[in-house]
Amino acid sequence: MIRERDSFPCPWGLLATGCPMRGERVHLNTPREHDCTAHVEMLTNPTQTDTPAEFWPRYGAWLRSTRKARLLRCEEQWKHENGKARISPKARTVIANGLAPTSFFDCLWRMRIRANYGSIDPFVTSYIPESEHQLFLRALTTCVDATAGMLELYVARKIGCDAYAAIAQDFVGNDAAGMLKNTLQVRLDAYNLRPRGP
């Protein structure tokens, strides 16, 4: 949907395609002024500067590494189903061409699965100080909050602001734990979305 409709802005709209196992570094919807393959960016030891010139190669590497993980899972399934120890170049091409482009949402899903069922170490390395882990958590929270906000605005535009505000306020009102007051309610206030009276 991201590829066909081009509905999301960067960085959500940036996609990785091709086969990273073959060294392919292909992206769709790359910002004109930046290059996602300008240099090799090691996610386990990223550069310390936070300029756009460093961000986009790092982000491109994250997309490609996520795509590689997805493709490797597909290849393992192919080997299991076909009783093979190795995958042929032709089969690898078919699998890579058949896999949808990899997006930011795939990266978040990969992190969730790794955190629940595996190790999160590739994302938060053990040799950095605790303060860096806290920065990572805040950055991840910001990413998720901004993503939820963007999707909420799309929904509000689709169904109408009043309808969305009523649904969201009902959701907040029925939250017995009160957790939505610090998330969804904050975003609703920022959008100035409140249901109109009768």
Helix content: 55-70%
Oligomer class:
single chain
Radius of gyration: 20 Å
Mean of all residue-level pLDDT scores:
84
Q: How would you write the strand order of the largest sheet?
A: 1-2
**Structural class by helix and strand composition:** mainly alpha
* Sheet of most strands: 2 strands, antiparallel
* Relative strand content: under 5%
Distance between the termini: 37 Å
**Overall number of domains:** 2
Low-pLDDT sequence parts: none
Order of helices and strands: HEEHHHHHH
Mass-distribution shape: globular
Instruction: Tally the helices.
Output: 7
How many strand segments? 2
Structure commentary:
- The protein has 198 residues and is mainly alpha-helical.
- The chain folds into 2 domains: 1-125, no CATH class; 128-198, no CATH class.
- It contains 7 helices and 2 strands; from the N terminus they run H-E-E-H-H-H-H-H-H.
- The protein has helices spanning 2-5, 52-82, 89-98, 104-117, 130-159, 161-173, 184-191; strands at 15-17, 26-28.
- A two-stranded antiparallel sheet has the order 1-2.
- Helix 2 (52-82) crosses helix 4.
- The longest helix has 31 residues, at 52-82.
- The relative contact order is 0.09.
